[in-house]
Design goal:
Chain lengths: 81, 131, 498, 275
């Protein structure tokens, strides 16, 4: 395991997580959440959990983001916080 | 001091998961927008999955897929050579549960939007009180 | 075949839920009979299982044929045998009673509703039967998701309050999952009995303490224990009557069962009551829960919402009784799981009968109802007597055990809270019954009907018969309390609790 | 509210940090998690189930009961989205847009009015844009390969990462890609709502039914070695085959549920206009 890489991805995960809940646009939040999931999936594959990261890549970064985007498209992008 | 730094460094995965969990929990409690809360909920669930996967990690071990030759030659398998597979199994289930919850939550949010034309909780409550 | 009861109990409802949802696309009329048959089989095998447990002691069923710490196993002992029987019987009776109201409230979505209903029952039965800590989490989520979907089908603000329930429920389930993870990291096992065997040398560890607190908080969120109860009243009030009369009696009680199971099997009573000094504060929280529930119920002008606040108070009874740490209190808590499931079912069935005929259950709608629906009101009176705790009904006996447990433990505040809540319940139900009995049915101030209603417009027989069975059950359980306590609950409580 | 939320989040964090201090070190091979159950799984999986991917073996066999409920959870979610969102409308409400295929003229049809039945008009979304050649062509090329890969993932789950769940999601995603790149009506025409919903249930029934078959053959629920007498092989191979069967069930159920949820969410239950 390369700890520099690990640390970089961990930082990115936290940044993407904070970004997803602070950005003042729901579509942006959905995309940020997709990025967060993808970083998470990288993190897990570093830790050797290949099956979990495969699932997260297809579910978290893939289908979940599509659901979010579809829901935002059907409702509104506006958010106050 | 050295001890403390060692603890902090040795368990950094756990600190990150706690940070992410706090972010998610904070978003779920404080945010006013229903979809934002759902995003927070997902971050919260993913943080717990990170925790479980961290418990499965093992130094000096490889991914939990056994080497198998097609020559019929059986390898001797040492438990120390492979990462603990059990947390991975549990977390596959947890990921599925989180996407299922996400689907239901988004469906509810769309229903609420169709009725009240907004996703802000305070505006919805104000509309309900007016009636 | 009786070897396979533990599997049949859960598998038959699961398979039939799937069949119902597929059959709904072909012919909607097939759904109800399949659901009835499935829950009938579940009720039959759960009672068979309880009788077998009473003869032979605890039963272990290995799913997949793997031995327990490797695979998942069902442990059925006296405690969950009793709860299984209660859950399946309550679900069965409620299904029959709510056929008409489902058809009235959700005419074009009956098929998926029945499927969700049966899935919910599957989840509840699985939670009670399982001996694996992680398996419990998965089943918890089935119960939760099907519950959200059913409750959100109500009118007005049902969706918003269900979404709040979803947030809280997810937090609760995730906390439970996290607690299991903490246990896993220090013990390496997920099987409840196995964890309990490994734990004793680790009792001093902060990780075990953390796991205990997180699990407990998670379960409390799910059962709406006092500071975490805010989601419950709205979610249960606005749901369709069939859904709330299934979920209100069962979900909170099953979560209390989970708490007791955690105390008994996973962490052991020794750890929970002797090593940790948390009994006192938790009983105080329970006292606060009872007072808050009672006072908030007094402020309500709506029958169904008033009942939901009574549930909050009842949760306080059971949590407090379980944490008194003595045999009488624990007996009271377990007996109250049975009694409260029946009492709440009876009360909510009354509400769904009223909703079926009147379209509203605010106090103003109830005026002169006794002339219109005498049988329903009779059942309400029995439910009220039981909730208050009047001797021939079952509510009296569990309260008796709880109070004697409180005196034994020296927790007089809990005793006062129980008595206070009984008093408040007297006021609450007297007020309801007074409105129903003595205020004349006034037609002239706008119910929007315009025509004079018939003197008697009782709910259909399919709704009344289950209601009568439940009402009779309240009295019968009361009369046979001694047998239940001596033959079942006595063996359900570990010997170490005195 | 903000301060309350901060306090709750922080106090949870502090509690968790306190509990974490007593943990065994990260990635420690001697920690209880790595020494209690997992050695058995790692060392015995091959001889007991003959599946090299331990995660698949534990998922579908040792803890197969969990996985059955995991599939049931997904099914419940699909059903929940359906019951919450689906609106059965006979007459399509609101104005609709039609496009004359030959001339490219767009016609708006008022609510209640009907267009004469003709092959020349195709229904288009309110947010319709002319089809992009690049997107359309690339998606048409990609989708078969995505589906092929998904089938590989399901079938090869015994030997490599993947399995029914991942493969099912990818299969579902290929249909969702079709719905996004063209429109919802095209994808619904490929996989009708009724078929989709029934297949969801069928997928889970394959799983639970395999378990029930084992029960009928005289062993415990989900004990795949009972299938040996049906499949004419030894019990260990029967376990391996049993895992494949249930993985296929999971794949079907997950694929259809993902499509079902997407269709309901993206069209708010009307099934007319997608994303």
């Amino acid at each position: 395991m390369i700890w520099q890489l690990d640390l970089a991805i961990l930082t990115l995960v936290v940044m993407a997580g904070i970004g997803a809940i602070t950005v003042k646009d729901l579509l942006g939040a959905a995309i940020m959440f997709g990025a967060y999931s993808f970083m998470m999936c990288l993190l897990w594959s570093i830790m050797g959990a290949v099956d979990v990261s495969f699932t997260e890549a297809s579910v978290g970064a893939g289908v979940s983001t599509v659901f979010f985007v579809a829901a935002v498209f059907r409702t509104t992008r506006r958010t106050k916080d | 001091m050295g001890d403390l730094i060692q603890i902090v460094v040795a368990k950094y995965n756990y600190w990150i998961y706690i940070t992410l969990m706090m972010i998610g929990l904070y978003a779920m409690i404080v945010k006013n927008n229903l979809v934002k809360k759902i995003v927070g909920m997902n971050i919260f669930q993913t943080a717990i999955i990170l925790f479980y996967v961290s418990t499965g990690a093992k130094r000096g071990a490889t991914i939990p897929i056994l080497e198998h030759g097609h020559d019929g030659h059986a390898h001797v398998i040492h438990a120390a050579d492979y990462i603990n597979p059990l947390p991975h199994v549990l977390m596959l289930t947890a990921i599925v549960v989180s996407v299922a919850t996400l689907g239901v939550a988004l469906a509810l949010a769309i229903r609420i939007y169709n009725r009240h034309n907004t996703l802000e909780e305070d505006e919805i409550l104000a509309q309900i009180r007016e009636k | 075949m009786s070897q396979q009861y533990p599997a049949l109990l859960v598998i038959v409802p699961l398979l039939s839920a799937l069949v119902i949802s597929a059959a709904g696309w072909i012919n909607k009329r097939l759904c109800f009979p399949i659901a009835v048959a499935a829950l009938g089989v579940a009720a039959y095998s759960s009672i068979g299982l309880l009788l077998r447990v009473m003869e032979e002691g605890a039963i272990v069923y290995r799913l997949g044929g793997w031995d327990p710490p490797m695979g998942i196993a069902y442990y059925v002992d006296h405690l969950n045998g009793l709860v299984l029987a209660v859950v399946s019987v309550v679900a069965f009776l409620n299904l029959i009673a709510s056929k008409k109201s489902i058809e009235q409230e959700l005419p074009d979505k009956t098929a998926p509703f029945y499927a969700l209903y049966v899935l919910q029952v599957t989840g509840l039965l699985g939670i009670v039967a399982t001996g694996d800590a992680f398996n419990l989490y998965v089943l918890l989520e089935i119960t939760a998701l099907s519950g959200y979907a059913m409750l959100a089908m109500g009118k007005d603000r049902a969706q918003l309050s269900t979404l709040n329930y979803l947030y809280m429920g997810t937090i609760g389930a995730c906390f439970y999952l996290l607690g299991v993870g903490y246990l896993y990291i220090v013990t390496g096992s997920l099987n409840m009995v196995d964890i309990a065997n490994i734990l004793p040398p680790l009792y001093e560890s902060k990780a075990v303490l953390g796991a205990f607190i997180i699990c407990l908080v998670g379960v409390w969120v799910k059962m709406a224990f006092f500071p975490l109860h805010a989601w419950l009243p709205n979610a249960y009030t606005h749901g369709p009557s069939a859904a709330s009369s299934l979920i209100a009696p069962l979900v909170t009680k099953v979560m209390i069962y989970v708490m007791i199971r955690l105390i008994f099997t996973v962490f052991t009573p020794e750890f929970a009551f002797n090593i940790l000094a948390v009994s006192k504060p938790i009983v105080w929280l329970a006292v606060a829960a009872i007072f808050m529930g009672a006072i908030l119920a007094l402020a309500e002008r709506n029958l169904k919402k008033m009942l939901t606040y009574i549930i909050v108070a009842e949760v306080g009874y059971m949590v407090g009784g379980a944490w008194l740490g003595n045999r009488a209190g624990m007996t009271g808590a377990i007996l109250h799981i049975v009694n409260d499931a029946l009492m709440t079912l009876c009360a909510f069935l009354v509400v769904s009968n009223i909703a079926y005929k009147l379209k509203g259950y605010a106090f103003d709608d109830l005026k002169g109802l006794v002339r219109k629906m005498p049988f329903t009101m009779g059942a309400l009176v029995i439910a009220a007597l039981s909730i208050i705790g009047v001797p021939p009904t079952c509510g009296f006996f569990s309260k008796w055990f709880l109070i004697s447990g409180a005196i034994q433990a020296g927790q007089y505040a809990f005793m006062v809270a129980l008595l206070f809540s009984s008093l408040v319940n007297v006021v609450l139900f007297f007020r309801v019954i007074e409105i129903c009995f003595y205020e004349p049915f006034s037609n002239d101030h706008g119910h929007g009907h315009g025509h004079h209603p018939e003197p008697m417009a009782e709910a259909p027989l399919t709704m009344l018969v289950p209601l009568f069975i439940v009402a009779a059950g309240l009295i019968l359980v009361g009369l046979y309390t001694g047998d239940i306590v001596n033959n079942i609950i006595e063996f359900a409580i570990p010997k170490s609790i005195v | 509210m903000k301060i309350l939320g901060l306090i709750i989040a922080l106090s949870t964090g502090v509690l968790l940090i306190c509990a974490t201090v007593d943990f065994p070190g990260w990635a420690d091979p001697a920690s209880p998690a790595s020494t209690h159950l997992s050695p058995h799984f790692i060392e015995k999986t091959m001889e007991e189930t003959s599946v090299p991917n331990i995660v698949t073996a534990v998922l579908a066999d040792y803890r197969g009961y969990d996985t059955m409920y995991e599939t049931a959870v997904i099914f419940t979610a699909g059903l929940a989205c359906f019951i919450l969102l689906r609106i059965f409308v006979r007459e399509e409400p609101g104005d609709r847009l039609y496009r004359h295929v030959l001339t490219g003229v767009t016609v708006r049809v008022k609510e209640g009015a009907k267009l004469p039945p003709s092959e020349d008009f195709e229904r288009i979304d309110a947010t319709w844009t002319p089809p992009d050649l690049i997107i359309k062509t690339i998606c048409r090329f990609l989708i078969p390969f995505i589906q092929l890969f998904a089938l590989y993932v399901i079938a090869h789950g015994h030997h490599s990462p993947g399995g029914g769940f991942q493969g099912g999601v990818i299969l579902g995603a290929s249909i969702i890609l079709l719905a996004i790149s063209q429109d919802l009506r095209t994808s619904v025409r490929r996989l009708r709502e009724k078929l989709d919903a029934v297949l969801c249930a069928v997928g889970v029934i394959i799983y639970a039914g395999t378990g029930a078959l084992c029960l009928l053959l005289g062993l415990n629920f989900l004990d795949y070695s009972a299938l040996a007498s049906v499949l004419h092989c030894d019990p260990v191979t029967a376990r391996s085959h049993g895992i494949l069967i249930v993985e296929i069930g999971v794949g079907i159920a997950v694929m259809c549920t993902m499509i079902w949820i997407y269709n309901n969410v993206s069209s708010t239950g009307k099934y007319d206009e997608g994303l």
